[in-house]
């Protein structure tokens, strides 16, 4: 592995370190009020662009690509859960 790929993998590892904690917080709180959905969509778009880059370069299983896959999955899961919990909170507010 060359130095550039190592640096890329380390960057993805550093970015990805925070997503499990964010996902756990979303699951525990079950209330996404105050969460920036625009931010999550932009992050997801960035990871999808990174995935497209890895596919175009045929680097399907490079360390950075694997980390991009995992990070994309975590961000998409967090966004999905946040939208679900937001709809749930709004439904509960209507019933009150």
Structure description:
By secondary structure, the chain is an all-alpha fold. It has a domain at 35-96. The protein has 4 helices and no strands. The protein has helices at 3-16, 19-29, 37-56, 63-95. It is elongated and about 60 Å long. The N and C termini lie far apart (58 Å).
Provide the fold topology.
Layout: H1 3-16, H2 19-29, H3 37-56, H4 63-95
Helix pairs in contact: 1-4, 2-4, 3-4
SSE pattern: HHHH
What share of residues is helical? over 70%
Low-confidence stretches: none
Described by strand count, sense and barrel closure, the largest sheet is:
none
Distance between the termini: 58 Å
Strands, total number: 0
What is the overall pLDDT average?
Answer: 92
Q: If helices are DSSP runs of H or I spanning 4 or more residues, what is the number of helices?
A: 4
Secondary-structure-based class equals mainly alpha
What shape does the CA trace take? Answer: elongated
Instruction: Please state roughly what percent of the residues sit in beta strands, choosing from under 5%, 5-15%, 15-25%, 25-35%, 35-45% or over 45%.
Output: under 5%
Question: Using only CA atoms, what is the Rg?
Answer: 16 Å
